[in-house]
Amino acid sequence: MGLLGVRTIGVAVAVPDPHGPCLQRHRAVFGDPQAESIPAHITLLAPVAVSDSDLDLVHKHLRTVAARHPPFSVHLRGTGTFRPVSPVVFVNLVEGISNCERLEADVRSGPLAVDTSFNYHPHVTIAHYLPDEQLDAAFTALADFEARFEVDGFWLYEHGRDGVWRPQRRFCFGSPR
C-alpha cells in the first residue's frame, strides 16, 4: 500500500504448485532479492495505483473479463531474456501465448486502461535487475525447464507495505461471480 486511500495492484496468472514454488526457489538461488516477495506468475496487468473508491469497479471489470474467457493450457519451456533492453531473464511460454495476449488486452481495458512502455510478451520472470553473471547463470540453469498446467482464472494481487505481492481475489473463467 502506498498513499492513504490508494493501493498498488497487479493482475496475473499464478504458476501453480509445484512449478511456481520451484521457480521461486530458483529465483532465490540466482540472488534475486525479489524472489520471496513475488510469486511466480504471468503478468496480465503490471503494477498500477488504484484508489480505494475505484476498487469495486475494478472487481466488477475483472469479473466481467473472466466470464468472457475459457480455460486454456500453458506450456513453459526454456529461457529467454529482454537484454539489452531490460535486465530480465524469464521462462518462455510455448503454448498459451495467444490466450494470454487476449486476456491481457481485455484486462487492460475499461477502468484498467493504462499505457504500457513495451509490447506485451507473456513470460515468467526468474531473474531481474541482477549483474550479468547472475542473469547468465539463470538463463543457463533453467534452459531445459519445462512445465505444463491448465489456467482456469487469474488473480488480483496487492503490493503490501512490506514489499510483498499477495493474492487478494481470484477470478474464475466463465463465471459471472
Give a description of the structure.
The chain is of the alpha+beta class. The chain has a domain of 114 residues: Cyclic phosphodiesterase (Cyclic Phosphodiesterase, Chain: A, Alpha-Beta Complex). Helix content is 25%, strand content 37%. The protein is built from 4 helices and 8 strands, in the order βαβαββαβαβββ. The radius of gyration is 16 Å and the shape is globular. The two termini are 26 Å apart. The relative contact order is 0.25.
Helix content: 25-40%
Question: Regarding CATH, which class of one domain?
Answer: Alpha Beta
Q: DSSP strand (E) fraction? A: 35-45%
CATH topology value of one domain: Cyclic Phosphodiesterase, Chain: A
The count of helical stretches stands at 4
- SSE-based structural type: alpha+beta
In whole angstroms, the N-to-C terminal distance is 26 Å
The string of secondary-structure elements, in order, is EHEHEEHEHEEE
Radius of gyration, CA atoms, in whole angstroms: 16 Å
The CATH architecture of one domain comes to Alpha-Beta Complex
Number of strands: 8
**Mass-distribution shape:** globular
- Spatial ordering of strands, largest sheet: 2-1-7-8
Q: How is the biggest beta sheet arranged?
A: 4 strands, antiparallel
What is shown here, in short?
The chain has 177 residues and is of the alpha+beta class.
Features:
globular, 8 strands, Cyclic Phosphodiesterase, Chain: A, 25% helix, alpha+beta, 177 residues
Topology:
Blueprint: E1 6-14, H1 19-29, E2 41-51, H2 55-67, E3 72-81, E4 88-95, H3 97-107, E5 123-128, H4 132-141, E6 146-151, E7 153-159, E8 165-172
